[in-house]
């Protein structure tokens, strides 16, 4: 009986301690660990024959959740996360991936802040999880709908855009949710395998499982420990590639950070990615628009350095944004790599300075 009482007392103490710790954590940014990594409202994306997916034109206001403060999203009639308004001659079209789409309320995004700083009209058409090939297609589509070309096109190029280009078009829509099509990419041989209908349905179902939705709390303390413990980014994925050169999710590792001598398929994928920027430049020249590329790469390395050098020779207005920022990591959310409203403001300031100093939008 005494042992039983002791066990009960220990369990009670542990339970109270954990409950108190969890309550304390909920008063800090760690409370967002209970949020899903990404939870996009159903039907926000629609299938697109050329692009794979696109944002649904006229999508009504809904809540977007992630491991940060939730916010309201919507789309205008162009299928862009932007206000509905008449587009005027001399506008600037902005395309890019999730760093252009937002992960912040529209009024706090760098695209909006840049528009406020420089004046004029910025049409904000970033789409999460896309690379340069997709963004060129999106630009063509939007400009065709508007009916006349922009004065300039701004592209925010991010480190994983090469991954997106390697598997373009990389997504489809299953039962109202966006689903990744890639099943396997061998970075030694370049062999690419798409998921079949059953595999896509299984991935869609995995997003709705009880475990995915309800076990965040069980792993909260473990994730807090992992956050403070730290560790080199990319260490795990690179070790896994030494066992097998096949990746099953396109963001498993940054292809731009890999050695093409070790993984032969990386070089042709890299050249293909650069070709998409060349094609973008030719398209912009053909419609009489200036092309401006802001690079946001994750550090240095042979391919990243080569990309900076060659991109600068391809595009007249090319700015290495990542090298202009004192501490890029400090601009992001603690549990999500995207920019906070403060980060967006700093980025917008750097971009505005570059554009004004070079008279790009005069």
- Share of residues in strands: 15-25%
Average pLDDT works out at 88
Largest sheet: 5 strands, parallel
Question: How many helix segments?
Answer: 13
What is the number of strand segments?
Answer: 17
Q: What share of residues is helical?
A: 40-55%
N to C succession of SSEs: HEEEEEEHHEHEHEEEEHHHHEHEHEHEEH
What is the gyration radius calculated from CA atoms? Answer: 22 Å
How does the overall form come out from the CA principal axes?
globular
SSE-based structural type: alpha/beta
Low-confidence spans? 209-219
What is the spatial order of strands in the main beta sheet? 7-6-8-14-15
Give the N-to-C terminal Cα separation: 85 Å
Chart the SSEs and their pairings.
Elements: H1 2-25, E1 38-39, E2 45-48, E3 52-55, E4 62-66, E5 68-73, E6 92-96, H2 98-101, H3 110-118, E7 122-124, H4 132-146, E8 152-158, H5 161-166, E9 171-174, E10 177-180, E11 182-186, E12 192-194, H6 197-206, H7 210-214, H8 220-229, H9 235-243, E13 246-247, H10 266-286, E14 290-296, H11 302-314, E15 317-320, H12 321-324, E16 332-333, E17 336-339, H13 341-357
Helix pairs in contact: 3-13, 10-11
What does this molecule look like?
This protein has 13 helices and 17 strands. The chain has helices at residues 2-25, 98-101, 110-118, 132-146, 161-166, 197-206, 210-214, 220-229, 235-243, 266-286, 302-314, 321-324, 341-357; strands spanning 38-39, 45-48, 52-55, 62-66, 68-73, 92-96, 122-124, 152-158, 171-174, 177-180, 182-186, 192-194, 246-247, 290-296, 317-320, 332-333, 336-339. The strands form six sheets. The protein has a five-stranded parallel beta sheet with strand order 7-6-8-14-15, sandwiched between helices. Strand 4 (62-66) and strand 5 form a beta hairpin. It is globular and about 85 Å long.
């Amino acid at each position: 009986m005494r042992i039983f009482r002791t066990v009960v007392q220990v369990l009670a103490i542990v339970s109270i301690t954990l409950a108190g710790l969890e309550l304390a954590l909920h008063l800090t940014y760690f409370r967002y660990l209970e949020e899903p990594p990404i939870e996009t409202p159903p039907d926000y994306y629609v299938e697109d024959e050329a692009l794979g997916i696109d944002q649904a034109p006229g999508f009504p206001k809904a809540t977007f959740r992630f491991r940060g403060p939730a916010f309201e999203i919507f789309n205008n009639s162009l299928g862009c996360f932007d206000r509905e308004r008449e587009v005027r001659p001399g506008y600037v079209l902005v395309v890019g991936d999730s760093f252009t789409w937002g992960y912040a309320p529209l009024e706090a995004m760098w695209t909006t802040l840049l528009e406020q700083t420089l004046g004029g009209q910025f049409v904000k058409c970033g789409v999460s999880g896309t690379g340069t090939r997709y963004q060129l297609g999106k630009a063509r589509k939007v400009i065709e709908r508007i009916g006349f070309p922009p004065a300039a096109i701004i592209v925010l190029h991010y480190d994983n855009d090469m991954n997106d280009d390697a598997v373009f078009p990389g997504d489809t829509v299953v039962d109202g949710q966006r689903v990744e099509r890639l099943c396997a990419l061998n970075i030694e041989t370049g062999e690419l395998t798409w998921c079949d209908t059953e595999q896509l349905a299984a991935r869609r179902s995995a997003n709705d499982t009880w475990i995915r939705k309800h076990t965040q709390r069980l792993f909260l303390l473990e994730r807090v420990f992992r956050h403070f413990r730290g560790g080199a980014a990319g260490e795990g994925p690179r070790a896994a590639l030494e066992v097998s050169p096949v990746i099953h999710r396109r963001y498993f590792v940054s292809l731009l950070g890999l050695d093409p001598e070790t993984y032969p398929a990386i070089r042709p994928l890299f050249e293909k990615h650069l070709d998409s920027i060349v094609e973008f430049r030719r398209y912009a020249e053909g419609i009489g628009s200036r092309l401006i590329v802001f690079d946001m790469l994750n550090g240095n390395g042979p391919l990243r350095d080569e990309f900076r050098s060659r991109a600068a020779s391809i595009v007249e207005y090319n700015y290495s944004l990542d090298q202009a920022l004192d501490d890029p990591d400090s601009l992001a959310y603690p549990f999500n790599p995207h920019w906070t409203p403060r980060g967006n403001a700093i980025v917008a300031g750097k971009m505005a300075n570059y554009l004004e100093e070079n008279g790009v939008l005069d």
